Amino acid sequence: MTENSTTSGxxxxxxxxxxxxxxxxxxxxxxxxxxxxxxxxxxxxxxxLRRAGHEVRISDLYAMKWKAVLDADDFPSRxxxxxxxxxxxxxxxxxxxxxxxxxxxxxxxLRWADAVILQFPLWWGAVPAILKGWLDRVLSGGFAxxxxxxxxxxxxxxxxxxxxxxxxxxxxxxxxxxRGIHGPLPELLFPLQHGALFFxxxxxxxxxxxxxAADLDPAGYRAATAGYRARLAGLFTExxxxxxxxxxEEYTRELALRPGRERPGSTGFGxxxx
Amino acid sequence: MTENSTTSGxxxxxxxxxxxxxxxxxxxxxxxxxxxxxxxxxxxxxxxLRRAGHEVRISDLYAMKWKAVLDADDFPSRxxxxxxxxxxxxxxxxxxxxxxxxxxxxxxxLRWADAVILQFPLWWGAVPAILKGWLDRVLSGGFAxxxxxxxxxxxxxxxxxxxxxxxxxxxxxxxxxxRGIHGPLPELLFPLQHGALFFxxxxxxxxxxxxxAADLDPAGYRAATAGYRARLAGLFTExxxxxxxxxxEEYTRELALRPGRERPGSTGFGxxxx
Lengths: 274, 274
What we know:
2 copies of one chain form a homodimer.
Chain A: E1 24-29, H1 37-51, E2 55-60, H2 86-95, H3 101-112, E3 115-121, H4 129-138, E4 162-168, H5 185-188, H6 190-198, E5 203-204, E6 208-210, H7 218-233
Parallel strand pairs in A: 1-2, 1-3, 3-4, 4-5, 4-6
């Protein structure tokens, strides 16, 4: 792994500054070491996006000492001694503006952003605990789910915003490809990309991945950032994943896909792609 | 949701005490409230298994104030100032016996156990952050993965042990069934069941799930525990999921399934089931 080796003279076609097209991007980054590949890619993305005229904020969860564990302290206005029903407690705290300040700040950043990038290493096929704790706590009742939230899978609180999942992983590409033993990366990311980001209404792009992350040499890092640069240039123009919106036409009241709606031969997670 | 309402006079056929068949079971439980459905099911399982003559230990992660976030403090013997390479640092700490005491204790409990039950609410299609942090930290380099660990997917450190994932979720069953919008539960659990538990060599059973967990009335709780009782009775006799072992015959050196090995029509995660 090398440090950020981008040459500031280089610029990809899509990243030419265009004040008219300036947008706001939130990068949520999760690695314990500020010299990690994750941190380098976060810095690289911020530089690229700023040079393209965008405004960038970074939620560096480790640097923020983000509280990962959702517990009773998240709902300080809750009557002491009540059994903790997470959905009810978070819906009530959201409605009364009594979620903790760290959670409210992240919800504001999500609303502020036109695009959100999640940058993390894939640990056990999923996000690190600190980022899972960001999802568990920030995507609260009322904001993200429950009867008082906007309808999921299409019209959620974050509708109109874009999402890009950017992961590094120690495994080689073939082991996370269609026939790979760890499972295809898009399927591993389905709960995050579809079940959380699209659930809140975001337009989710194909994930960006850097494989063999433990053994990346300078040439490998340059190749990775070149690939990332192209994806960042398309952040607001790429076609999002064609997830199926939750409508009566598509899904039953029990939230199962109606018979015959799927593309021929698709099963499992694939049913929910148009 | 009701509290544990098991009647001690009831006993399912499979749970008759049999000292000759006494085994050791570790339950890892993750919910912030000791009066939660999760906690009730953990208590129910412990009672059932003890009445059947088994020895039970419980890792109640919230009660233990489990440290969820993997960081530099996990490797106290690491040279200060070194960049944190998680794999290298955890492999070294494992090899030198310098992992933190909490992590070493959980690794010992896993080795002690003949079966492990993970009991948790499904949050955003996955384990709560505190349980993700248990996986991230306890399944360290050397113990779980890396060149010095036992070979994955078949012969790992926990080979010969059984694993049962027991989840509660607020969604209704159809939304997590084959055509459900949240994705089929077995696919959501694949990274955990296959990518972590089977990765370490465990024999993984079909998951046990309690749907509609937010609205469970006493009758619903009785039905849930009746179903759970049957599964617990089969903990050591049920046929495990037929995950494919990592052998040269089945997989390439790049860990992709060889052409033609799959059952006809299977794709994605399904390729890795015999």
